[in-house]
Amino acid sequence: MSSYPTKPTFAGDSEERIKRFLATASHDLQSPLRHIAMYAELLLDDLEETLDGEQLQSLRMIMEKAQTAQRLTKALMSLAGGTPQVTPEEVDLQALAENVWGELTDETAVGEATLESNGLPSIRTDPALFDLVLRHLLTNALMYRSEAAPRVAIAAERAGTDWFIRISDNGTGIDPVYRERIFEPFWKLPKPGTVQGAGLGLTTAREFLTALGGDISLEHSDESGSRFIIRLPIA
C-alpha cells in the first residue's frame, strides 16, 4: 500500500488568512442560506397540492441543497475556529459520486464526460464534508482536462482499518515542478485562458479529510492524467 506524506505546515500568515477567509465567508452565508431554506419549506407547505411532480422535486431540491449548504458553512466556521464539527452518517458513495458528477457536468456543460464508479461501497463519514472533497477533486478533473473527452474513474478498497479511495482522470497531468505546491492555500495551478478560483480547493479538501481522520495525496501524475488517493478510517 502506498505511503502518505506528512501534512505540510503552512506559514503562519497563510494559515491565518485561510482561517479568516473561511470564517468570514461562512458567517456571511448563514443568513441568506437560512432564508432560502425557510422560504422553500414555506412554499412546499403552501403549494404542495397544486404543483406537479417535477415542480415539487425542484422545490424539494432547493430546500435540501440550502440545508446542506447551511451544514457546510457551519462546518467551515468550526474548522476556522480550530474545532471542526463532524456528523458521521452512513453515506452511499456510489450515489454521492453520481450526484456530484451530474451537477458538475451540468454546470460546466462539458460534453461527453464520463464517470466510471460502479460498485462503490457505503462509508461512514460526514456527508456534507465529503461531498465537498469529491466536488473539489471532480471539478479539477473537468477544469484541467486534455483535448480528449474527460474521463474520471473512482475506485475504493478496504485495507485494515481504512478505506482507500482512488480518483483518476485523463487530464493534462501536473508538472513535477508544481506537485509540492498543489495543497498550499491560495496557490493555483496555472492554466491559460481560464478564470482561476481562490486556490483553496485542495487545501480545504485536505483540511476536511484531516477533520474526518483521513488524508489525501497525489499518488501519480503524468501526461496521461492524475490519480489522487483518499484515506478514510472505516469506523
Report on this model:
The protein has 235 residues and is of the alpha+beta class. The chain is 46% helix and 19% strand. It contains 5 helices and 7 strands, in the order ααβαββαββαββ. It has helices at 12-47, 53-80, 93-108, 127-143, 201-211; strands at 89-92, 114-116, 122-125, 151-159, 162-169, 215-222, 225-233. The strands form 2 sheets. A 5-stranded mixed sheet has the order 2-4-5-7-6, with helices on one face. A two-stranded antiparallel sheet has the order 1-3. The longest helix is centred in the first third of the chain and has 36 residues, at 12-47. It is globular, with a radius of gyration of 19 Å. The two termini are 19 Å apart.
Salient structural properties:
five-stranded mixed beta sheet, alpha+beta, single chain, 5 helices, 46% helix
Mean pLDDT: 82
Are there runs of 5+ residues with pLDDT below 50, and where?
Answer: 1-11
Order of helices and strands: HHEHEEHEEHEE
- The termini sit apart by 19 Å
Percent in strands: 15-25%
Total number of β-strand segments? 7
Round the Cα radius of gyration to an integer and report it.
Answer: 19 Å
- Oligomeric state of the chains present here: single chain
**Within the largest sheet, what's the order of strands?**
2-4-5-7-6
